[in-house]
Amino acid sequence: MSRHSPAHDQFADCGPRALRLGAGALILWATILFRPAVAETAPADKQILGWVERVLVSSERVSMKAKLDTGAKTSSLHAANIERFKRDDQRMVRFDIEDPENGNRLTLERPLVRSVRIKEQDTDGSTSRPVVMLSVCIGQTAREVEVNLVDRSRFIYPFLIGRSALAGQVVVDPDDTFTQPPVCSVSGAES
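-> structure tokens emitted (191 positions)
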């Protein structure tokens, strides 16, 4: 008397290749059935941009490459000669940014919004960075953004734009770069 069921007898002559094909078909079917739904488009009120975009900074419209980093809360801009000072009892910051297209340095002065302490990755210490407001144009979006100023010369991109600057306006596509040139007008409110 055989201990095998009739169903088992149907597959008794199947070789390893047939079993692998059957298992592969089962995995493919499960992948299609249970894959998460992915939105192909952003909501109508948000634009889809790549993880690196060209942006315009400040009312001076300095064009530079920026990394759109949803893992960072705040934005950081490469600046040199950062100097805090007071003018008419208002705390100010003077700093230089470089125009990557022509290498010219531009000196800007902005009111100090606040200072932030940032933990350094390479050490156990932290540094204090000044935060200023700057006009930034990303794609078709112009915003006043809080930006901390720091020496980013060792990084590829001089400007890191964090999620607080992107919130409500931009969806970042990690597979894409340079999707839209900056086409908005940056306000002349900064002086």
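The chain has two domains: 1-35, 47-177.
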